[in-house]
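Entry 14. Two folds queued back to back today. First construct below, sequence then structure tokens.
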Amino acid sequence: MPSPPATLPTVGTNLTDLTLKKKKITVRELGGCMGPIWPSYFKDCTSIIFMVDSANTAQISSSCIQLLSVLSAEPLSNVSVLIVFNKRDMPCIMSLMEIKSLFRIDDIIASATQPITILEVSARSGEGLKEVLSWLESIIVK
């Protein structure tokens, strides 16, 4: 079996067009290092998929702070949010319960004005990606 392709973090911005339920949507991917310019895209945003590298425990607190910044932005007060814990296939990750606790996900959900969904995925293996597409389709139907 061939080895999976190497992955790299997004360091810029990528645009991808998808057609779901006969509707075209544009997904704008903004890397974590682009955090300072994220607000310039908020007014055109209809939903958020917030990807967390759950194998990089050193960045969990930084990711949590970035998420709180996104959730507190006024233009995003009513958008649907999907938090994706990625790299769940890695051998050295915390359990989902541990990462949710460290991320304080229950407190975030309780205080957020947005509806929040949480999924675990492995972008490398494809596990969980069908659920991400299902979430996107459910948002489009609204």
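Second construct, same run, same settings:
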Amino acid sequence: MAGLHVRSVLVTGANRGIGLGFVQHFLRMPNPPQWIFAGCRDPKGQRAQELQNLASKHPNIIIIPLEVSDPASIKAAAAKVGEHLGGSGLNLLINNAGVLKAKSLDDEMLQDMTETYTTNTAGPLLMGQAFLPLLKKAAQGSPGSGLSCSKAAIVNISSIAGSIASAFVWELKQIVSYRCSKAALNMLSKCQSLAYKEHGILCVALHPGWVQTDMGSAVGQPPPVTVDDSVQGMLKVLSSLSEKDTATFLDWEGNVIPW
């Protein structure tokens, strides 16, 4: 991760799984971020205990109450992050929070589709809007031209399950609302890249692999990739991204995934 130098990062869904993995790996960097903002739906809940323990030992971890399906919660989180940053901006926004409902096409309901889309697609949209001023500030305050994750970036954690060309593990689980929400997230990533490039902000969609998390295990077979390997791989990919990579859909090993 020698190529990734961020002063500040915000990770949503940071209390477990891949989100918690990101927090742990940022801490292990030779030069950890001055600010690691860990967004979490219920900071005082049992599921956030490991994150709370980390934060008690590392003063650069700031736990932010954040429900990405709630516009008011997002607005409050942006204000709180802005207070901590003072006059500086936010270098890296990692939209990781997501939900998966293990339903087949015949079983999908309006409520499932709406809830999944709200969290997995609308959430990253609203996060990008709310944190745009802080991302722009980081880009303006970074030396040099071009785009990079060390300067200012939005990273949307997507999934190969949202690849229309791939239809990954359809035989195992149809998970239609999840697939649709991630395909839409990929289009959002493209839209953000087009709109925010002029502000110096790189935008990319990343597939973390089929990872050993609660969500990954919902497909019905043991996932092959550990959280550690996934996050380490994604950070290596992020460290290498430049202007030519904005608006791409990559996996945790840096491979291009077909839309």
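Quick look at the second one. The chain has a mean pLDDT of 95. Strands lie at 8-11, 35-40, 61-65, 92-95, 153-157, 202-207, 249-251.
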